[in-house]
Amino acid sequence: MMYRNSEQFSHHQSDKIGVLITNLGTPESPTKPALRRYLKEFLSDPRVVEVPRFIWWFILNLVILNIRPKRSARAYSTVWTEQGSPLMTITRQQRDALQQRLTKLYGENVLVEFAMRYGQPAIKDVVHSMLGKGVRKLLVLPLYPQYCASTTASTFDALAQDFTQRRWLPELRFVTQYHDNPDYISALANKISAHWQSHGKAQKLIFSYHGIPKRYLTNGDPYHCQCLKTTRLVAERLGLTQDEYLTTFQSRFGREEWLQPYTDETLKGLPAKGAKSVQVICPGFSADCLETIEEIGEENREVFLAAGGESYQYIAALNSDDDHMAALTRIIETNLYGWTIGGDNEARSKLALAAGAEK
Ligand SMILES: C=CC1=C(C)c2cc3[nH]c(cc4nc(cc5[nH]c(cc1n2)c(C)c5CCC(=O)O)C(CCC(=O)O)=C4C)c(C)c3C=C
Ligand SMILES: [Fe+2]
Ligand SMILES: [Fe+2]
Question: Where does Fe(2+) bind (predicted)?
Answer without folding.
Answer: 210, 291
